[in-house]
């Protein structure tokens, strides 16, 4: 274990130079207070949980202090936002403080979000509000606990610094950890500005630091693109299987590591709804739940376009054709696990699709359905769950297919329950839960957000005494409107 002041830095991205990022110092926020920290994320830096109690912790993560070896930089990137190309975005309110190497030799970017204005702030104030910082923290750490690839969050720091959104709010900072902050939009920036040498340098950097195994392939750049595509397909499969709606799948929010990245108005589905739009500002539903699959494919095509100076277009096209089959295979694997099936059958895709169609419009809670399906023997569980469906004849036909399918598999109900509970969370980050703890935190009470974080860190475990966190949303919590403003 290390103390905060003992971290080892090796700032590889900063060394790429001025074409890639600009040096900027964080602008501190007033009267910083630690809202919460994640012991699991701290462990990635070899930090003991007690380090969060030190005074210097809140100071470092509110921009008041800096390590001697840190080299804070704002990265430049571009991106397709809602389908239209913005030629220059960049870190408008976040800074890459540096890269920390842990005792296992793993590198972690320390990115301080809400750190003040940068050359890329455009009209923005460089700040992040408490509400959105808490939302990013909770989602990052919860997705990781669910086994879904994601950036991580070390802590949130609140302040008395005022910021204006639709109303007066206060500034906060979230310290994000990721093995890389390179986005699809980084490649687009160098492609569309015709800086092809820098494009190559960026690809070399990503290969060296994050995909060294691709060096052994005949065409390392192509191998890199395939790997990004495969990881992205895997990530989207998780989102679709677990009901996660990202909300702003612009190419600048797509990580080159295929991890969930840049949290805005995201949501986990309560009732299953393939057409759910979680972003109140997404008028056309471009980023609706079911559109996430074709949009990921579209974003990969945008990345492929940016890589055309390095890779033959025909090879890129052939790789893009692999996306849907890869996604589908990952997704079916996950859904089989959720249904408690350990063998594969050609009819499984139809079994899953039919279930989702029945859920659509029936107001069936997407998380609790699978959890309860594993609670008791199949016939018993189905008899209980049947009550939630509108199309009873349809449900009975599906249930009969499902029973046949489970009967063909060996194993006791105890095994089945253990397997299914390991794949089906009881606790999920519902919007109404986030809303409740945000309101408490805004009033200065951090107890509820800390407790929610602890519950969501063990989403698959029964947690006696905390069952209220597993409940479906109350009426007021069903249709919360979350906008892009953050
Ligand atoms: P996001 O919606 O957080 O993914 O941000 C999209 C772009 O807008 C990124 O370049 C951000 O850095 C920038 N941005 C968002 N909010 C602000 C802000 N309050 N001040 C400056 N830049 C911002
Ligand atoms: Mg972003």
From TrEMBL:
InterPro entries: SelO (IPR003846). Mg(2+) binds at residues 253, 262. It comes from the Bacteria. Its cofactor is Mg(2+); Mn(2+). ATP binds at residues 90, 92-93, 113, 125-126, 176, 183, 262. The keyword Manganese applies. The active site is at 252 (proton acceptor). GO terms for molecular function: AMPylase activity; ATP binding; magnesium ion binding; manganese ion binding. The keyword Metal-binding applies. Keywords: ATP-binding, Magnesium, Manganese, Metal-binding, Nucleotide-binding, Nucleotidyltransferase, Transferase. It is an enzyme of class 2 (transferase). It catalyses: L-histidyl-[protein] + UTP = N(tele)-(5'-uridylyl)-L-histidyl-[protein] + diphosphate; L-threonyl-[protein] + ATP = 3-O-(5'-adenylyl)-L-threonyl-[protein] + diphosphate; L-seryl-[protein] + ATP = 3-O-(5'-adenylyl)-L-seryl-[protein] + diphosphate; L-seryl-[protein] + UTP = O-(5'-uridylyl)-L-seryl-[protein] + diphosphate. Its EC number is 2.7.7.-, 2.7.7.108. Nucleotidyltransferase involved in the post-translational modification of proteins. It can catalyze the addition of adenosine monophosphate (AMP) or uridine monophosphate (UMP) to a protein, resulting in modifications known as AMPylation and UMPylation. Belongs to the SELO family. PANTHER family: PROTEIN ADENYLYLTRANSFERASE SELO, MITOCHONDRIAL. NCBIfam families: PRK00029.1 (NF000658), PrtAdtaseSelOPseudom (NF045949). This is Protein nucleotidyltransferase YdiU. It comes from Pseudomonas xionganensis.
């Amino acid at each position: 274990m290390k103390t905060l002041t003992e971290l080892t830095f090796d700032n590889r991205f900063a060394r790429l130079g001025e074409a890639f990022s600009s040096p900027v110092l964080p602008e501190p926020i007033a009267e910083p207070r630690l809202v919460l920290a994640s012991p699991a994320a701290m462990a990635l830096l070899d930090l003991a949980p007690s380090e969060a109690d030190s005074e210097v912790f809140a100071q470092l993560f509110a921009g008041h202090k800096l390590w001697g070896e840190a080299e804070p930089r704002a990265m430049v990137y571009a991106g397709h936002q809602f389908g239209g190309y913005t030629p220059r975005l960049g870190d408008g309110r976040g800074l890459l403080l540096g890269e920390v190497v842990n005792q296992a030799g793993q590198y972690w970017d320390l990115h301080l979000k809400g750190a003040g204005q940068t050359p890329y702030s455009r009209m923005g104030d460089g700040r992040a509000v408490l509400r959105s910082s808490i939302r990013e923290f909770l989602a990052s750490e919860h997705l990781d606990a669910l086994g879904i690839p994601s950036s991580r969050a070390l802590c949130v720091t609140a302040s008395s610094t005022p910021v204006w959104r639709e109303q007066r709010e206060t500034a906060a900072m979230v310290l994000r950890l990721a093995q890389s902050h390179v986005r699809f939009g980084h490649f687009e920036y160098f492609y569309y500005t015709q800086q092809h040498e820098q494009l190559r340098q960026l690809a070399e950097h990503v290969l060296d630091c994050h995909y060294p195994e691709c060096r052994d392939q005949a065409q390392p750049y192509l191998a890199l693109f395939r790997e990004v595509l495969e990881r992205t397909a895997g990530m989207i499969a998780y989102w679709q299987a677990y009901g996660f709606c990202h909300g702003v799948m612009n190419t600048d929010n797509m990580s080159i590591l295929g991890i969930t990245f840049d949290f805005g108005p995201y949501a986990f589905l309560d009732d299953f709804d393939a057409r759910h739009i979680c972003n109140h500002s997404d008028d056309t539903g471009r980023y609706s739940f079911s559109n996430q699959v074709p949009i990921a494919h579209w974003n990969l095509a945008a990345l492929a376009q940016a890589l055309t100076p390095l890779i033959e277009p025909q090879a890129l096209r052939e790789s893009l054709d692999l996306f849907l089959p890869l996604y589908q295979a990952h997704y079916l694997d996950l859904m089989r696990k959720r249904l408690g099936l350990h063998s594969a059958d050609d009819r499984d895709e139809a079994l899953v699709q039919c279930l989702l169609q029945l859920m659509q419009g029936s107001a069936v809670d997407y998380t609790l359905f699978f959890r309860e399906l594993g609670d008791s023997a199949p016939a018993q569980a189905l008899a209980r769950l049947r009550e939630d469906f509108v199309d009873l004849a349809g449900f009975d036909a599906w249930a009969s297919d499902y029973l046949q399918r489970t009967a063909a598999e060996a194993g006791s109900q105890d095994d089945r329950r253990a397997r299914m509970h390991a794949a089906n969370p009881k606790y999920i980050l519902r919007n109404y839960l986030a809303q409740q703890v945000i309101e408490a935190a805004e009033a200065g009470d951090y107890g509820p957000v800390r407790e929610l974080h602890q519950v969501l860190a063990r989403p698959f475990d029964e947690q006696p005494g905390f069952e209220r966190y597993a409940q479906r949303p109350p009426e007021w919590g069903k249709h919360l409107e979350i906008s892009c403003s953050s």
